[in-house]
Amino acid sequence: xxxxxxxxxxxxxxxxxxVPHPRRSEVELLAAxxxxxxxxxGRLASLGVHHLWVEHDLTDDLDDRIGAAPSPxxxxxxx
Length: 79
Fold this sequence. Notes:
- The protein has helices spanning 38-47, 60-66, 72-78, and strands at 2-5, 19-20, 28-30, 51-54.
- By secondary structure, it is an alpha+beta fold.
- Strands 1-4 form a two-stranded antiparallel ribbon. A two-stranded antiparallel ribbon has the order 2-3.
- It starts with a strand and ends with a helix.
């Protein structure tokens, strides 16, 4: 998985980790595995989501070793 700015994400990419609401962390906007389209990307940006974890073939072997989703501490450090 890669941590990308919303402007770097292209339609067709898949979310690699759940996307929390930026102001209500208990609310999950998208689940892992959701394929993104232009409408979803625009909506996420309008809600204030600036970065997402997305799936990438080059990191598949690493993803298996580090776990299914980034920890809350890692998310906080990257935002």
